[in-house]
Amino acid sequence: MVKTTRKGRRWLAGVASCVLAAGLLAGCGSNGADRERPASDAEGTKEPLKVSIGLTQVGDIPAKGNEVERAIEAYTGVKLDIQWIPQSTYDEKISVMIASSELPKIVKLNYTPLIISSIQSDMFWELGPYLQDYPNLAAQGEQHYKNISVEGKVYGVPLFRDIGRAAFNYRKDWLEKLGLSVPVTLDDWYATQKAMVQQDPDGNGQNDTYGFVLEKQYNLGNSALPTRLAVSIGGVNRWGMVDGKITPEMMTKEYREVLAMLRRMFEEGLINRDFAVLDSSESSKFFDSGRAGLGNAVAQSVKSQHDRLIANDPNAVVDNAAFAGPDGIRLAGEPGHNGFLAIPRSSVASEEELKQLLGFLDKLMDEPLATLLMRGVEGKHFAYTEDDRTEFLDFSLFQREVKPYRDNLPNVEGYHVKTLKDTELGEKGTRMAKENAQYAIPNAALTLSSVTYSERGAELDQLLQDAQTKYIMGKIDDAGLDQDIQKWLQAGGQKIIDEYQAAYDALNAQ
Predict the structure, then answer these.
(1) Residue 84: C-alpha distances to residues 53, 57, 107, 215, 268 (Å)
(2) In CATH, what is the architecture of 166-332?
(3) How high is the mean pLDDT of the chain?
(4) pLDDT tens digits, residue range 147-164?
(5) Rounded to the nearest 10 degrees, how much is the dihedral formed by the CA atoms of 349, 351, 354, 356?
(6) How large is the greatest C-alpha to C-alpha distance in the chain, in angstroms?
(7) CA 401 remoteness from chain centre
(8) Dist CA 496 CA 83 (whole Å)
(9) What is the distance between the alpha carbons of residues 435 and 442, in angstroms, rounded to a whole number?
(10) E-strand spans in 283-336?
């Protein structure tokens, strides 16, 4: 990890002090080394670059001219004009802005069919060839950029998120009481689930506990449990290459083995009977209240999981682990971004301005601003510890004043920011999410184009999701599941496979 320099701390503290005291940011901006001051107005002779940005509203809209925004402006030498767009209507608003060519100079985009089509129509600058000239942007993992690429080209700067954070929380005290180890094989998972249901791990004399509690979205999204289990034993992550052909997980033996295990669990009463209709907000309460011993999660969630549980059971012991199979840790890799920042051609006409905007995004990851975005203002939101780490002084205030910027601008935990002092579990979760990126298996179709999937993906996905649920609940057998897969293929699934294959072949022929 890159060390935080005292000079960087002094600069940020100086800017924050000026913002709080008088707002005299021009004077503050003259401190520090060349890399630690705005190139555009270092001598006070140039107007600041005006940067309009469209971002997702997170909580309350920050007041214009607040100290965080002013500190960003002082360091980067720009004048910000941020348009905060409510999350509930974000994609709709962006589509209107695209249609009317009224986009800001930088806009947060989500990886949707409309955005992909707009990129293919040459509405946004290709950024890939320029990234090598910006040290902070270039320093981030290649997979982050691959995961937002279109036809192999990069058109944005990701809002970086961890790729290898797939994990499960577990009741360590229950495993010890039951004489079990952390599960690895599917047989282990079955045995653990059975023991947690039938052997009274909480000692109350009743069979009222579970291992995993499934809910109605058990096979959806980045944390789909069947996908994570199948990947751990060697399967694909949603889509992957099998015998040289792009293949959906439902047509792989590993995924079918996982479904067969879940079916057996349901038959034997080891899975909650209402899983097909249970909301996720309800399923999470089972672990929190001490009625479940396994929780499908992300690495960083173990601390909050522990805190919620011990509020109800002070003697409980929680730990977490990465999904691993017979060959070691093997994770269903996540997209690694929360959208990306793109630069529209309609708003930025010249390559010179494009480079200035990339320079602005790159400076956001310099040490002073990385600390500002991820920890806030020293002495107000956070403090440095005696062992040269950081700790929050007022996390609620940070959430209100800084989080909207942190969630919408480029930053990476551990990059140009000091380690956050936390509980042992909190630090373990943060560490795991970083270290386990090397074990993440990507979704081979994540950035491939399919016209059929763009038009009918949700409908066709629902066919497979319903088939899995019917199979687990015993409403159809293996032959019935095969028939439903054939229906999916005939309804458009085969066209998706063919289109993904063609896109994959074209990409790899470049």
Answers:
(1) 8, 5, 11, 33, 51
(2) 3-Layer(aba) Sandwich (3.40)
(3) 91
(4) 999 999 999 999 999 999
(5) -120
(6) 78
(7) 22
(8) 37
(9) 16
(10) 294-298, 318-322, 324-325, 328-329, 331-332
- The whole-angstrom separation of Cα 322 and Cα 330 is 8
- Domain residue ranges in the chain: 6-161+336-416, 166-332, 451-508
Question: Is the CA virtual torsion 489, 506, 164, 329 positive or negative?
Answer: positive
SS3 category, 478: helix
| Cα gap 175→172, rounded to integer Å | 5
Cα dist from 154 to 143, 144, 492, 506, whole Å: 11, 10, 29, 16
Give CA–CA dist 115/111, Å, rounded.
Answer: 6
Q: Model confidence at 509, in pLDDT bands (50, 70, 90)?
A: confident
Phi, psi of 483 (to 5 degrees): -65, -40
Give strand ranges (E) for 58-142: 78-86, 106-109
CA distance to 344, 347, 349, 465, per residue, from 105 (Å): 6, 5, 10, 40
Q: Identify which of 245, 143, 156, 237 has the alpha carbon closest to the alpha carbon of residue 504.
A: 245
pTM of the full structure: 0.89
Burial 326-338 (b: 16+ CB within 10 A, else e): eeebbbbbbbbbe
The runs of H, that is alpha helices, within 77-168 are 90-99, 113-120, 135-138, 142-146
DSSP letter assigned to residue 421: P
Residues 187-206: pLDDT tens digits?
999 999 999 999 999 999 99
Rounded CA gap, 217 and 26, in Å? Answer: 52
Whole-number Cα distances in Å, 456 to 217, 411, 491: 19, 35, 10
The 3-class secondary structure across 424-442, one letter per residue, is HHHHHHHHHHHHHHHHEEC
For residue 464, give every residue at least 6 positions away whose Cβ sits within 8 Å of its Cβ, in sequence order, or none: 248, 250, 484, 485, 488, 493
Cβ count near 70 (within 10 Å): 20
Note the CATH number of domain 6-161+336-416: 3.40.190.10
For residue 505, give every residue at least 6 positions away whose Cβ sits within 8 Å of its Cβ, in sequence order, or none: none
Reduced 3-state DSSP string for 181-230:
CCCCCHHHHHHHHHHHHHCCCCCCCCCCCECCCCCCCCCCCCCCHHHHHH
What SS3 state is found at 390?
strand
Could you report the per-residue pLDDT of 76-100, keeping only the tens digit for each? 999 999 999 999 999 999 999 999 9
* Pairing of β 337-342 and β 106-109: antiparallel
Please count the CA atoms within 13 angstroms of the CA of 332 that sit on its side-chain side: 28
- Residue 59 pLDDT: 84
Do the domains 166-332 and 6-161+336-416 match in fold?
A: yes
